[in-house]
Design brief:
alpha/beta; single chain; 6-stranded parallel β-sheet; Rossmann fold
Length: about 350
């Protein structure tokens, strides 16, 4: 079983059951817009925001038992959603007589030092594959190179890959964080009619997904001469820190017209601060935090880019099995397995809240 060493909690089971119908409800949205790996599409042109209907592919595992180790940036609901996909794949393998056990561990605060320690400990264990959601591209990539050179099978997954040229075997997750940042910022710029001051909360220093989204945002803003990025801050994936930073930025620049939030936590802290101060600043951000979805429903947040965490988890386990069997990227799996992001708007918030959280409050 996973690091939770057993079945899903009752709450997560409930979320899983309810999530199965998201395919149908979200397909009804008529005015959302979304992004896939190669093109930006309307949400009503896609099957769903998150794909919960998965089956194992035709690959026949070489063994009957596998043991994996996965570590990620920080304990957070985003990675709980990834875990749901992993647990679904684990169950389906078990139905085929394949037993998969795995650790799924992370610190309470993002830290490349902690991640390095966990990786070094993992290589002393009896794991078929070690997987990591990279906390800091510059610091962690050399660690992965050494692990691979010493004979360990290493992959990356989730939201952040290693540096280009890293020896890790494969990556499963978001390959378009730059584009996500650019798309969200473009939506903000259009809402602001391409003029005004904006500020940005990035997330964690060195986290590839956060830094790439920030770069996409900066490049988009630079296209418009009447827009100005007046402040950039790092909240370290903390809602409270994001709140405090937003308060400070608004006090320093009361005429900020918009905020770009590059992770799942900072839209919540930013929305809280904007509401408290009575600002009319437009907020765009990432993912499906329950409070963020409420702020989206209430119009405080303008739009959110929701990643398909479930597919990330499911596909990660399938690729790990193939890597454990001595396979390399090629016909069986690509070096990078891309997962989708869809931008959702106010009208999408209520069905998301009901299905993901059983939340029908008005």
């Amino acid at each position: 079983m996973s690091s939770r060493r057993g079945a899903m909690s009752a709450k997560m089971k409930n979320i899983f059951r309810k999530s199965l119908i998201i395919v149908f409800l979200l397909a009804l949205a008529t005015t959302s817009s979304g992004y896939s790996a190669d093109t930006e599409t309307k949400a009503d042109d896609t099957d769903s925001v998150v794909d919960f209907e998965h089956n194992l592919d035709d690959y026949v595992p070489a063994k009957k038992k596998y043991n994996f180790y996965f570590t990620y940036k920080i304990v957070h609901p985003w990675w709980d959603a990834v875990a749901l996909g992993m647990e679904d794949a684990q169950k389906k393998y078990l139905e085929n007589g394949i037993i998969i056990t795995y650790e799924y561990m992370a610190p309470n605060a993002a830290s490349y030092e902690d991640q390095t320690k966990r990786l070094l400990q993992a290589q002393e264990g009896n794991y078929d594959v070690i997987g990591v959601d990279v906390a800091d591209e510059e610091k962690i990539s050399p660690v992965l190179d050494k692990m691979v050179s010493s004979g360990h099978k290493v992959m990356t997954f989730s939201s952040s890959d290693a540096a280009p040229g890293c020896k890790r075997i494969a990556y499963v997750g978001n390959t378009h964080n730059y584009r996500d940042g650019a798309d969200l910022t473009e939506a903000l710029c259009e809402k602001l009619e391409h003029k005004g001051k904006v500020a940005m909360l990035v997330g964690s220093h060195g986290a590839p997904c956060h830094e790439d989204r920030a770069k996409g945002a900066k490049d988009t803003i630079s296209k418009y001469p009447n827009m100005e990025l007046v402040a950039v801050e790092y909240d370290n994936d903390s809602i409270d820190t994001a709140y405090e930073l937003t308060i400070k930025m608004l006090k320093d620049n009361p005429d900020i017209a918009g905020f770009i939030c590059c992770n799942m936590s900072n839209p919540v802290g930013t929305a809280r601060a904007v509401t408290e101060l009575g600002s009319n600043a437009v907020i765009v951000g990432m993912d499906h935090d329950q409070d963020a979805l409420h702020y989206l429903k209430d119009g405080v947040i303008y739009c959110l880019g929701v990643q398909d965490c479930y597919s990330i988890g499911f596909d990660t386990l399938q690729v790990a099995v193939k890597i454990a069997d001595e396979n390399v990227p090629g016909d069986l799996f690509p070096e990078k397995t891309d997962e989708s992001t869809t931008i959702i708007y106010q009208e999408d918030a209520a069905p998301m809240l009901e299905i993901l959280y059983g939340d029908i409050s008005q």
